[in-house]
Specification:
- With 280 residues, this protein is an alpha/beta fold.
- 34% of the residues lie in helices and 21% in strands.
- It contains 10 helices and 12 strands.
- The strands form 2 sheets. The chain has a 6-stranded mixed beta sheet, with helices on both faces. It has a 6-stranded parallel beta sheet with strand order 9-8-7-10-11-12.
- Helix 8 links the parallel strand 11 and strand 12.
- Helix 1 packs across helix 10.
Length: 280
Amino acid sequence: MQEQHTQPLIKLFAVLGNPIKHSLSPLIHNYALQKLGLHSFYTRFFLPQDISSKDLRTFILSSDLSGVNITLPFKERCIESLDNIEGIANKIGAVNTIVCKNQKLNGYNTDAEGFYHSIKHYQPKHILLLGAGGSARSIAMVLAQHSIAITTANRSKEKLQYFAQFGETMSFDMLNTHNKQYDIIINATSASINGVLPMPKDVLTPLLQKSMLAYDLMYQQGDTPFCGLAKQYTHTLDGKAMLIYQGALALLYFHNIAFSDMQFMQVAKLMAESLHITLP
């Protein structure tokens, strides 16, 4: 009688967002999963902008997903979908990684540490953070933990209240008369998705001229509008660096792999290899 070999079940993971077709997460995760010999597959799902927290939870649990990454515009909304919120995600109030286990959803935030890994070698003293959404919250929290001064600016003042605990806050209009120098300027707005700058060019340009790095959390094929302008005056990074570092952390959570610097960097380097880029 011929011996039968059973194949291990393939775990399914995905990134959820709107828009989502631009996402490189399936590429970097599947490349790393294959190289690491893990029996998993990673895809992406486009969800309605107005999906409720309850329907988001139902979608995840009914889709046989073992874990998901969450991107715009669901990072804050998904909080109410969860059974548990772990680590720094509790303080941030935003989740970008969810692990599904025994019909329970456990939320994490890998954006924060992923971002810090991408800028720490610049050793910044003062950072200007543009935007006040879920990604901005993650960044503000981790910068504060590493004792880096933060000024947060946003188009409207309403969302800035949360950021007052980390340092100075102001509207974009106030930046026009604000003559300070920042080591790094971070575009955490969604302006690049719409193909525009986060603020008027004549306000942004003087800030870029005095910085050592301009960092757009968004990415696309070619330069984002923010990076396209910034590269005339300073060094630039786009969201692929943060994508890789947060993705490496998420992969470890998804597969219940104990964190170590060696494991983390091995995964991150594989993900960077998939995009043919060098990590900062």
